[in-house]
Amino acid sequence: MAVQWKPSCSLRSPRAPLLTPSSSFPSSSASMPLLLHMEKGRSGLSYRGRRFVVRSSSGAGSGSLESGWQRWWRPPEKGLGTSDVSLSDVLWPSAGAFAAMALLGRLDQVVASRGLSFTIAPLGAVCAVLFTNPNAPAAQKYNVFVAQIGCAAFGVLALAIFGPGWLARGAALAASMAFMIATGTTHPPAASLPILFIDGAKFHHLNFWYALFPGAVGCVFLCLIQEMVTFLKRNCKF
Questions:
Q1: In contact, 172 and 158? CB cutoff 8 Å
Q2: Are the C-beta atoms of residues 19 and 11 closer than 8 Å to each other?
Q3: Engineering a disulfide at 104: which of 2, 80, 118, 181 sits with its beta carbon 3.0 to 4.6 angstroms away?
């Protein structure tokens, strides 16, 4: 609903008029009417050039809080009981995650003599991204490898500059965020690689080789398993 008002005096500013209701306006161009828009459920007053927008406070109590909470805590639209998700959509990604961790665990036995490990927490998060939502931007292969390599390198660099501690963690994480945003390669699991390197003394001897191992190398195996999971989800439905 649009209501017309006309200025009568200043609104805490010599150039911002106070609005008072009126049913008509002078026809001269010197006193052009200001248009106000009343929007239900919102409150406040804003000024844009020669136009004011007024939002009423009616209905802005519990209704607004409830709608804000629903936007913040939105339940999933899909689940096992819906027509969009079948049992095979749940089983194959879960089986893929099991196979991935089993393979990485077997590789751990190969490299254990060198004090290395493939089974790291970030690769568990990569499994969740790759197997549950393979079409998401974070699951695209380019994003996975560029973010994994770049963020791991920032962890090595931060430790070399600041030494172990909170400053290195904060600087490495901030640099990783900036890197992913600037390159358009957002991949959330990669953000944990710098923290893992700074706090994990067993990786320090890798130096900048940490940019490739175990994160990027581990993702090669995970991406191969993801292709198998995608094939099974597409061709073996039940």
A1: yes
A2: yes
A3: 118
Q: CA 158, CA 165: separation in Å to the nearest integer?
A: 10
pLDDT tens for 201-216 read 888 988 999 999 999 9
* pLDDT at residue 83 in the model: 58
Token reading at 142: 């380019």
**Does residue 105 lie within any of the structural domains?**
yes
- Residue 84 within any structural domain of the chain: no
Query: What are the distances in angstroms from CA 115 to CA 118, 180, 205, 206, 218?
Result: 11, 30, 10, 10, 16
Kindly state whether residue 187 falls inside one of the protein's structural domains.
yes
Domain of residue 175, residue span: 90-236
The Cα–Cα gap between 128 and 99 comes to 13
Judge whether 170 lies within some domain.
yes
pLDDT in tens, 133-164: 899 999 999 999 999 999 999 999 999 999 99
